[in-house]
Design a protein that fits this description.
With 128 residues, this protein is mainly alpha-helical. The protein has helices spanning 7-18, 24-30, 35-48, 64-75, 81-88, 93-104. The termini are far apart.
Length: 128
């Protein structure tokens, strides 16, 4: 089961971490938080401030042109990753990496289409 943390809890933990002389791993273990989660919160806070720590209500949609420009800047090392996230207002690094992977595989980073599933039918159909 995935644990979700409120924005105030995240902010409190980040503030506490800033004021201690412990490693990220030790601090995370002491507070029963994943080190990866804490690292991600730090990155989100540094790129977008408090608003970026809040859990979004809906998934963001990015225009195709924005995705291609961000991938282009990333691949040509025009900007550091953090600046790319700020410039294009991308929420997380993993989003940008997914677009780069798609682009490197010869596909354009476009929105995924969700297939509509039909109703399931069990057993053979009989027509009377």
């Amino acid at each position: 089961m995935k644990i979700t943390y409120s924005t105030t809890t995240k902010l409190r933990l980040l503030s506490q971490f800033q004021n201690v002389n412990e490693s990220l791993k030790v601090f995370a273990d002491y507070h029963n938080v994943g080190a990866g989660s804490l690292k991600r919160w730090i990155q989100q806070y540094l790129t977008g401030g408090l608003a970026n720590l809040e859990r979004p209500v809906h998934n963001r949609r990015y225009p195709k042109k924005l995705k291609l420009r961000a991938v282009h800047d990333y691949r040509n090392h025009r900007l550091p990753t953090r600046e790319i996230l700020l410039k294009y207002d991308i929420r997380g690094l993993s989003q940008l990496r997914n677009w780069v992977i798609l682009y490197n595989n010869g596909k354009e980073p476009v929105r995924k289409r969700v297939r509509k599933m039909g109703r399931k039918v069990s057993g053979p159909l009989s027509i009377k």
